Amino acid sequence: MVPPAADIVSSLGVVSATAAEGRDDRHRVLVHDFSGHPFQAQLARSLASSGHLVTHVYCGSFQTPHGAVGDSDEVSSFNSLGIDLGRDFAKYSFVRRLRDEIRYGIQFSRLARRQRPDIVVSANTPLVAAFVIQMSLLVRRIPIVFWQQDIYSMAMRQHLTRRGGVIGSTVGAMFQQVEKFLVRTSDWVVVISDDFMGTLRDWRVDETRVSVIENWAPLDEVPVASRPNGWSQRHGFDDGDTILLYAGTLGLKHQPSMLLELGRTFADRPDVRVVVASEGLGANWLRERISDAREVELFPFQEYSDLPEMLGTGDILLVLLEPGAGMFSVPSKVLTYHCAGRAILGAIPPENLASRIIEQNGSGLVVAPGDTDSFVEAARQLIDEPTGRTEMSAAARSYAELTFDIVAITASFNRILERCVGGQHTDRSVSEAGN
Q: pLDDT tens for residues 108-117?
């Protein structure tokens, strides 16, 4: 059960004051990841292990799979807290979502005021909430590292223009100005790909305070699982089945119809099973349209502790990314799939970094979003070529082991923290951001 926000604020202040006593050689770091993803939580624990006093904060009301966001028995200088809005975050209603974002931003700001961190590292925060948070931190002159996982305002502007024409485009342009403000008033910006740099140059962001650190997934939390395993046996998956598995967030924009078509194509093959572990609009859309249990087998979000065995049950791991995602968004499930050591089938824009990772490392096959025929044909190829699938699986894990080095990643973030807290950053003012 996520504690009420008031309790969070109270307890956080006490913990921080006690833990920091007598230690001037380390920083009080607040790692904020709205989504509660696994790798941000891992970074927070790793920063704590390197000597900082770290609090990891996420939105406990956001309906998405969370990583290992609990407190650590091994690292006393780490704690993790979820902000509870009292109900599920309103993803799909513009007015209610706007209200929830403002409430979240206010609650986080109160929490940060009690916490009195030396620096805040923030990621995956909806833009209105991020604006509320950033204004409160600027007023208190708390250094901010803006960890840019996507250029959200671009996708928002496209969506709002499609939905609302000129008015939608105008509102979208306002969100673009908000995101521009956020990156320009941050003390440091971390982006996940060089692809972001062109936009940041257009926004006149000082490149000397931008670092490129690609996303990763926690290797030790997602080991390669064998078949059969406990999860596969509990849910009745036979060793001889070929399992095509989709796990994680599934919105309508991801085109769940491709999964339904995949299931219908192989419904007459008892050795092939299409499995989806998700909740929300996409899962509901599938549930309403499945006419035969053999088409698609639906599961809710699974416990994070079950993730390795669930992914290990899959022979082919599926990922869908909407056409408008372009080059910026990199679905974290692609990186987690690489840890799991399984062949990947993706419907992803070719310019997207996730597509390039899969193709350059030989860890799977990629088709264009919305190309259902190619998606089904690629699935057929993977199903019928187990040797090739095995090679892709090995390539996936190899890429993860070579790339997801949490020690090196932590060192990169530590250098950023020292530059910001140590006064080596360039002072950013609100007035400068408007120039």
A: 999 999 999 9
